[in-house]
Amino acid sequence: MKIAVLPGDGIGKEIISETLNVLGRLGLKLDFEEAPVGGAGYEASGHPLPEKTLALAKNADAILFGAVGDPKYDGLESAKRPEQAILGLRKELGLFANLRPAQVYAELADASSLRPEVVAGLDILIVRELTGDIYFGQPKGIRAHETGGREGFDTMRYTEAEIRRIARVAFDAARRRNRSGGRKVCSVDKANVLETSRLWREIVADEAKKFADIELSHMYVDNCAMQLVRNPKQFDVIVTGNMFGDILSDEASMLTGSIGMLPSASLDANNKGLYEPIHGSAPDIAGKGIANPLATILSAALMLRHSLGQPAAAERLEAAVKKTLRDGYRTSDIYTAGMRKVSTAEMAAAVAERL
Predict the structure, then answer these.
(1) Which tens digits make up the pLDDT trace of 115-130?
(2) Which of 72, 222, 288, 327 is catalytic?
(3) Could you tell me if 164 and 277 are in contact, meaning their C-beta atoms sit under 8 angstroms apart?
(4) Is 222 noted as a catalytic residue in this protein?
(5) I need a labelling partner for 191 at 20 to 30 A (CA). Which of 13, 178, 197, 301 fits?
(6) Distance in angstroms (rounded) separating the CA atoms of residues 264 and 115
(7) Where do the CATH 3.40.718.10 domains begin and end in the chain?
(8) Which residue is catalytic, options 42, 246, 272, 275?
(9) Active site residue 135
(10) What is the pTM of this model?
(11) Domain 123-255 adopts which CATH fold?
């Protein structure tokens, strides 16, 4: 199983290195090949997604991605900024479905910004469409306006086919999760204002007819943002567009206590995927050995499950993370009094030991 390893910038190198150490303890035949991306890609070749890196990603069975970005690149033109690397990979590889689970471990309920009774037992999945919407819609740009000055414009677009395929991913995910009180999909849009959302709602409702065992509901995005902090456990699977999903998944991440705990998967039509923690490159703490590697380790578990056909290994890895937390190990972002504060490497070593 060939895995393209793209550490990227900032803490990406640390969390990826430790995750590879953990994966090495599983006893699987995994072939890792590393390449620069993001700011590191720009330094190596003058572009955030070098041709050799893209070729490696295309030929791999899966991609394990760290993080990209650094303020020192803020002055670059848009096309050469580190963040363009991840957008380019999504587009070139057809990674249209982003799975972002948000789960509150019992041991971390007190770390959430909400009361423990509101989030205890939370287990939701946000399915975000990745290759359409306002981020990729044309036309876009900045131009002179007839009234003087300039105007910026971006176009929100979705085709019927794009909506149908992401709806199917969400319904299939709800069916596979099969959790108590689950098998529910909430489609989030802004159909009271946007024509794009009206089409979205119509197509999702039509696709739901093929999934009679799944309960479908619809919710406006502003209400969903409120409900996620009011009563998040009402949700099972949330499916939404690119921009709304970007915002809501980050909101959901804070319900869990730390953005350093959340993995993600970005899949194509054949379940080949790019796996990454949802946090950023955090250049302010890079090299200090205090970053939380668990989101990356859990992303590797998603990789084992979805792209590499190793569900048993994925379950072992997830169980090892839970046992590590039960045993009191905490990086600084999830530390509470009485727990054992550890470094990035020590946290990963604890997970590896429990494998």
Answers:
(1) 888 888 899 999 999 9
(2) 222
(3) no
(4) yes
(5) 178
(6) 25
(7) 1-98+272-355, 123-255
(8) 246
(9) yes
(10) 0.89
(11) Isopropylmalate Dehydrogenase (3.40.718)
